[in-house]
Amino acid sequence: MTEAVFAETIAKDQRVEPRDWMPDGYRKTMIRQIAQHAHSEIIGMQPEGEWITRAPSLRRKAILLAKVQDEAGHGLYLYSAAETLGADRGDLTRRLIEGRQKYSSIFNYPTLSFADVGVIGWLVDGAAICNQVPLCRSSFGPYARAMIRICKEESFHQRQGYELLMTMMGGTQAQRDMVQDAVNRWWWPSLMMFGPPDDQSPNSAQSMAWKIKRHTNDELRQRYVDMSVPQAEALGVTLPDPDLSWNDERGHWDFGAIDWSELQRVISGDGPCNALRIENRRRADSDGAWVREAAAAHAARHQEVAAP
Ligand code: BYC
């Protein structure tokens, strides 16, 4: 495959596959985005995972356990997709724990009450779905295909979060207050998940041209706000933005200014939980080293025995 064939594949909306010729920049961008996405899933297990032992009932514990396991699964498909591009999984993990590769800003905030589990399902998984459904049509085949299953599971995750919040909103005043407090803390960070505004997004133009991204950061953020406002109303919570108002002319909800300095701070390592998240990941990596070594030794021995 040559450059012309690559260009034609993109123009015709077909998929680029791992053995096809692709520009170095395309390969680099795909590895960067897929690795960041995989890291987000794996680090994203921590904030909710902290509540597994403290879930208020066996039913809630079983649901949460299954959700966090799904996130591990998403991370693994995504690392596999990155490997099809020549990336090495161990190297990607090293880059993460050495702070050389990013993961989503949202997972650097603490989960202070069980209502946070519901709000992560509703708002964080809701934002993830908005962002990831278009990625099912992303131009790189293994990423697009991984995204189909991931989106199905994310949509289930979102419903479990909403159902949990509905239950809490039908409970005591203290439970309703807990939900409102969690919404107040997670709303603005969830808007930041979509990335910097379009005029400050260095990667968007090229990623849109290569059809890796199908919509800009601001387009998806607006879609998410439009989707979330009626859901908040149905739930009976207030979104913490006094500037939120329906704009008849635009046919969209207007919303207040986002504090972009907060996103920059969190991305550059200075969010409330960055150090803790990375320290936990580093410990899990070193605690698991013997398992990886044993598995590699077993595979090598197996190959030796199988060789004629
Ligand atoms: N946090 O030029 P831009 C989940 C980075 S997991 C941190 O707009 P791009 C879930 C950006 O990567 C959700 N970094 O970039 C799991 C870029 O970095 P470089 C994860 C951010 O790539 C468990 C730089 O800033 N989802 O759902 O065109 C439980 C400039 O930005 C953030 C994905 O990863 C951020 N918020 O667009 C529950 C989706 N925003 O160039 C839920 C896949 C931007 O310095 N990724 N950056 O390395 C994407 O769709 C795109 O990569 C983004 C950014 C829209 C995130």
TrEMBL record:
GO cellular component, one term: cytosol
Keywords: Oxidoreductase
Protein name in the entry: Ring-1,2-phenylacetyl-CoA epoxidase subunit PaaA
Organism of origin: Actinoplanes digitatis
EC number: 1.14.13.149
Superkingdom of source: Bacteria
Enzyme class: oxidoreductase
One GO MF term: phenylacetyl-CoA 1,2-epoxidase activity
A GO biological-process term: phenylacetate catabolic process
